[in-house]
Design a protein that fits this description.
A hairpin with a 2-residue loop joins strand 1 and strand 2. Among the domains are: 226 residues, alpha-galactosidase from lactobacil brevis (Beta-galactosidase, Chain A, domain 5, Distorted Sandwich); 96 residues, Sandwich (Immunoglobulin-like), CATH 2.60.40. 22% of the residues lie in helices and 31% in strands. The protein is built from twelve helices and 35 strands. The two termini are 43 Å apart. The strands form six sheets. Strands 3, 4, 5, 6, 8, 9, 11, 12, 16 and 17 form a ten-stranded antiparallel sheet that branches. An eight-stranded parallel β-barrel has the order 18-19-20-23-24-25-26-27, surrounded by five helices.
C-alpha cells in the first residue's frame, strides 16, 4: 500500500484511512466503504507503482500511487468510473484523504496575487484550515503547496498538481490529529458520468524529510527525473532577452526589435523574445489586450516585413527566437468571438474573456495557431501567457463538457494542446506565464519547460519569490528577469530601475543581477541605450552565468541558508543566502545578499559539506580565495561584515 512506500510512518494515525474521497449523488465513497477488488504492483523506470481497484454500488475507483526511488515522495490519484446503468453525478473528488497522528504542528503556506506571489503564512495548525484557489488559476489566492513541521523540524510537504481550482483541507478529528484531504475544489464543480464514463483526479504529491530543504530537494529531483519535459534548449538553460517592460506594445516595432537583436548577439544572449504587441490590426495604437485571439493578424504598421524576418535575423546571429502568445485569451475587440462564437467561454450567458478549450474544436484551433508560430514564424520558444481569472469556468453545454465541469475540461484541454505541441515540435521550449506567477503548479510544469515567476522584478521581490517557488520546483524551471526598466506610465512604487541613474554602482547592479541568476537568467532592457559600463558588466555576467553558474542551476540540490527574505522590509528577513550542491558533493556555489536595512554583520552557516574535508572557497571574480574545513563552514559559518546594503557575494567551493 502506498503509505508504506514512503516514510509517512508515524506522521499517520492508526488506520484504516479513507485514502481518497468521492462524493456522488449525495454520498461519500472511499476505501472505507468500497470493496477492494484487486491490487497490483509494478516497477517502472525509477518508481514503484501500486494500483488498487475498489468497487461498490455502481462505482469503480482505481487508485494509482507512485513511490519514487531514492526519495520519500509519493503521488497518488483516483479515477472514478460509472459501471452502473444510470448516470452518476460527482460533486467532490479528493485525490488523497489521510488521517494525521496527533502532534504539535506548524503550517507553512503561501498566498499569491499579482506582485505579491509567495507571501508566507506561518501559523500553528489549529482548527479547520482550508487552503484553496477559486480564481480558476492555481496560484491566484494561494499556491498549491504546503509544509507541516514538527517541533524537531521534520517536515511533511504536499502539493496538488493542478492548474485550475483546488483545495487542501486540514480537519480536526475527535481523537486528536487532522484529516488531510486535497485535490479538485468542489466549489461550483459537478461532473455527471454516463454509464461507462470516467473522471480522473489530479495527482496529490506528498514528501517527508528531515527539514524543508530535504523535502524541497526531493520535489526537485523527482521533477527533473520524471515530471518536467526537457529538450536541448531547456537543458541549455539559455540567457534570454525579452522586449516587454521597456517598450511594451506602444514602442515595439521591427526596427527597435532588430536593433536590440544586434546588441543582444554582441552581449552573449542566446534567446530574443518578441512579447505582446506583434498581432492584431495594422494600427500603431492597437492595444494588445483588446485583440487577443486574432493571432492570424500581424500588425503591419509595426512589423511591415512580417514576423519571419525577425526570426531569420535572430537565427542569423546564432540565437533562438521566442514569441509571446496568450492562446487562451479572448480580447473584447477580437474578431474570433464573432467568427467562432462556439469557442467563447460563457458563464450564465456572459463572456468570460477566454477561449474554452473544453471544446475539442477550440483545442484544434489552439494547436494549429501555436503550430503556425513554429512553422511560419520560426519560433523556437513560445511564451504561453494567461491574464485573467476564469473563476468557476464555462458552463455551456455545447462544448463537450457539462455545466459543472467546464474549468476541469478547459485545463485538461490545455494540457492536451501543450502535450501535442511538444510531441510535434520537440525542439521548441514552452514557457508558462500567467499575469506573471498566477498559474504555477506541478500540473503545468509537466506540460511546459519553464515558468515565469512574476511580473515585478525588483531584487527583494526576486529573492522572496525564488525562496518560495523553489520549495516545490527545481531552480532550473524557474525563470525571472533582472530588475527591468519599465516603460509603464504608472508603475508600482517599487519598480523604479533606471539604468542611467548616477547612483547605480557596479555593486548595486551585481546585487540585482545575481538575484536573477538563481534560476533561469534573463533581462528586459533597452539594450542599445544602456550605458557603456553597464553593457560591459552585463556581458561579463552573461559569460559568468554560462561558464560557471547555470550548471549548478541545472543539476544541484538547493539549500536555503536563511529564512525567507521579505520584500516589505521585515526585520530579521533582510539577508538571503542560497547554496547549490552538485549531486556528487564535489562542488558548491554560494549566493549571499544583504537587502536594504539588513544588519551590517551576518554569519552564514553552510550545509551538506563533509566535515573533515578541506574546501577551497573562491570568489568567481577574484574577490576571495581561502581554505576552510567543512565542519568550520557548517558550525561556525562564514562571516560577512563588509557587504553594504544591496551588496552580494558569489563564492565557489571545491
Amino acid at each position: 500500500m502506498f503509505v508504506q512506500l514512503v516514510g509517512l510512518g508515524d506522521w499517520l494515525a492508526v488506520g484504516p484511512h479513507e485514502l481518497f474521497g468521492v462524493e456522488a449523488d449525495g454520498r461519500r465513497w472511499s476505501a472505507r466503504n468500497l470493496n477492494l477488488r484487486e491490487a497490483n504492483t509494478s516497477r517502472e523506470n525509477g518508481y514503484r507503482q501500486d494500483v488498487l481497484a475498489f468497487a461498490g454500488d455502481g462505482l469503480e475507483v482505481t487508485l494509482t500511487a507512485r513511490g519514487y526511488d531514492d526519495s520519500a515522495l509519493v503521488e497518488c490519484w483516483p479515477t472514478v468510473r460509472n459501471v452502473g446503468a444510470t448516470p452518476v453525478t460527482v460533486t467532490r473528488l479528493d485525490s488523497l484523504s489521510l488521517d494525521l497522528a496527533p502532534a504539535e504542528l506548524r503550517l507553512l503556506a503561501f498566498t499569491g496575487n499579482w506582485g505579491s506571489e509567495f507571501e508566507p503564512v506561518e501559523q500553528p495548525l489549529a482548527g479547520e484550515t482550508v487552503l484553496e484557489s477559486r480564481s480558476g488559476r492555481s496560484s491566484k489566492g494561494n499556491h498549491p503547496w504546503f509544509a507541516l513541521f514538527r517541533p524537531g523540524g521534520e517536515a511533511l510537504a504536499g502539493a496538488v498538481a493542478w492548474s485550475g481550482n483546488w483545495a487542501m483541507r486540514f480537519s480536526p478529528q475527535a481523537g486528536g490529529g487532522f484529516r488531510l484531504t486535497g485535490g479538485l475544489h468542489d466549489w461550483a464543480f459537478a461532473k455527471t458520468l454516463a454509464p461507462g464514463e470516467a473522471l480522473e483526479a489530479p495527482p496529490f504529491v506528498l514528501a517527508v524529510g528531515a527539514d524543508l530543504d530535504d523535502v524541497a530537494q526531493q520535489y526537485a529531483r523527482v521533477g527533473r527525473r520524471h515530471w518536467y519535459p526537457a529538450n536541448d534548449l531547456s537543458r541549455q538553460l539559455p540567457v534570454e532577452w525579452n522586449h516587454w517592460w521597456p517598450y511594451e506594445d506602444a514602442e515595439i516595432n521591427e526596427a527597435v526589435f532588430l536593433r536590440n537583436v544586434d546588441e543582444a548577439a554582441r552581449m552573449g544572449f542566446e534567446v530574443c523574445t518578441l512579447d505582446a504587441g506583434w498581432f492584431g490590426p495594422s494600427d500603431p495604437d492597437t492595444f494588445w489586450e483588446h485583440y487577443r485571439g486574432d493571432w492570424h493578424l500581424v500588425n503591419a504598421r509595426r512589423f511591415p516585413n512580417g514576423i519571419r524576418k525577425l526570426a531569420d535575423h535572430v537565427h542569423a546571429h546564432g540565437m533562438k527566437f521566442g514569441i509571446w502568445c496568450e492562446i487562451e485569451g479572448l480580447g473584447p475587440r477580437a474578431a474570433l468571438a464573432q467568427e467562432r462564437p462556439d469557442f467563447v467561454a460563457l458563464r450564465d450567458g456572459a463572456a468570460l474573456g477566454y477561449v474554452c478549450l473544453g471544446n475539442p474544436q477550440a483545442q484544434e484551433w489552439a494547436y494549429a495557431t501555436l503550430a503556425r508560430l513554429v512553422t511560419e514564424f520560426g519560433a523556437d520558444w513560445i511564451k504561453v501567457d494567461f491574464n485573467l481569472d476564469p473563476g468557476a469556468g464555462c458552463n455551456r453545454t455545447d462544448h463537450g463538457h457539462g455545466p459543472g465541469d467546464g474549468l476541469y475540461a478547459h485545463v485538461r484541454g490545455y494540457y492536451r494542446v501543450m502535450s501535442r505541441l511538444r510531441r510535434d515540435f520537440p525542439h521548441v521550449l514552452l514557457e508558462n506565464c500567467s499575469s506573471g506567477g498566477l498559474r504555477i503548479d506541478l500540473g503545468t510544469l509537466r506540460h511546459t519547460h519553464t515558468t515565469f515567476l512574476s511580473d515585478p522584478d525588483y531584487p527583494e521581490h526576486d529573492l522572496q519569490i525564488f525562496w518560495g517557488a523553489s520549495t516545490m520546483l527545481a531552480a532550473n524551471v524557474l525563470l525571472h528577469w533582472t530588475y527591468s526598466d519599465w516603460r509603464n506610465l504608472n508603475p508600482p512604487p517599487y519598480q523604479t530601475f533606471d539604468p542611467h541613474d548616477p547612483a547605480l554602482t557596479r555593486e548595486r547592479w551585481d546585487y540585482m543581477a545575481r538575484a536573477s541568476m538563481l534560476g533561469g537568467f534573463g533581462l528586459s532592457q533597452k539594450l542599445p541605450d544602456l550605458p557603456a559600463w553597464l553593457r560591459r558588466r552585463i556581458e561579463e555576467q552573461i559569460a559568468l552565468y554560462k561558464a560557471h553558474v547555470r550548471r549548478f542551476v541545472r543539476e544541484a540540490d538547493l539549500y536555503r541558508l536563511t529564512p525567507q527574505p521579505r520584500r516589505d522590509g521585515t526585520p530579521g528577513r533582510l539577508w538571503a543566502a542560497f547554496q547549490y550542491r552538485l549531486p556528487d558533493g564535489s562542488e558548491h556555489l554560494l549566493f549571499v545578499f544583504r537587502l536594504p536595512g539588513g544588519e551590517p554583520v551576518r554569519r552564514i552557516r553552510l550545509k551538506g559539506l563533509e566535515r573533515e574535508r578541506l574546501y577551497r572557497v573562491r570568489g568567481l571574480e577574484g574577490e576571495a580565495d581561502f581554505t576552510a574545513r567543512g565542519d568550520a563552514l557548517m558550525d561556525e559559518g562564514l562571516l560577512f561584515d563588509t557587504l553594504g546594503e544591496q551588496g552580494s557575494a558569489l563564492l565557489h567551493l571545491s
